[in-house]
Design a protein that fits this description.
Structural class: alpha+beta
Strand order of the largest sheet: 3-2-1-4
Distance between the termini: 26 Å
Number of strands: 4
Number of helices: 3
Strand content: 5-15%
Largest sheet: 4 strands, antiparallel
Helix content: 40-55%
Length: about 200
């Protein structure tokens, strides 16, 4: 005899409904919290590093001693390298230095421009700004949020599968007891037994 599920009984395995919505909200909340915490940590770390770097960066005036040399070709990434020119500047303590610095394209000889140097007077990259922190912070926060969402969804799915398996097992045990009464097999069996007597 085929087994039929009586109306209104049996576990629900669909991800829809209040349980599914609650699980989705929980996953999103975990992802948002983890992403926000990671973003705050990345921002603070980057800001500290920029402040430490800024303490060893100095702006000085340099004078070009030759015209700018424009790069002939672009890099592999399609970005043209900056133009460079020979220049002289003074740092630190009136120490005269010379070297090659980055300049705008077609900068002529004798042009005065501002450059960044380190504590030894060597040309160096400028310290980072707030705008520089935004892309790294957003990228890191989104990556952490995505990883947290995936991990949370996986854990919740595992919990839901195990819970559903337990409900199915419990329902099977209940059905074994209820099905004979619900289908009438016991009543028919009882009637045949009394007729034989």
């Amino acid at each position: 005899m085929s087994r039929h599920e009586p109306p209104g009984r049996g576990p629900t395995t669909s991800g829809s409904g209040p349980g599914g919505r609650a699980a989705l909200i929980l996953v999103l909340a975990i992802a948002l919290i983890c992403g926000a915490v990671a973003g705050a940590i990345l921002w603070d770390t980057g800001a500290r590093a920029d402040r430490a770097l800024a303490a060893h960066r100095h702006q000085v005036q340099a004078v070009t001693t030759g015209p700018a040399e424009d790069p002939p070709i672009a890099s592999r990434q399609g970005v043209r390298p900056p133009s460079i020119a020979p220049a002289v500047w003074t740092y630190p303590d009136n120490v005269r230095r010379s070297g090659t610095v980055q300049v705008p394209p077609r900068t002529p000889q004798g042009r005065t421009l501002t450059i960044w140097v380190d504590d030894r007077g060597t040309p160096a990259r400028p310290p980072g700004t707030t705008a520089d922190l935004v892309p790294a912070t957003l990228t890191g926060g989104i990556a952490v949020a995505g990883a947290a969402a995936a991990a949370s969804a996986g854990a919740l799915a595992l919990v839901r599968r195990r819970s559903a398996a337990r409900r199915f097992a419990a329902w099977e045990r209940e059905w074994e007891q209820v099905e004979p009464l619900w289908s009438g097999r016991l009543r028919r069996g009882g009637g045949q037994g009394s007729g034989d007597g």
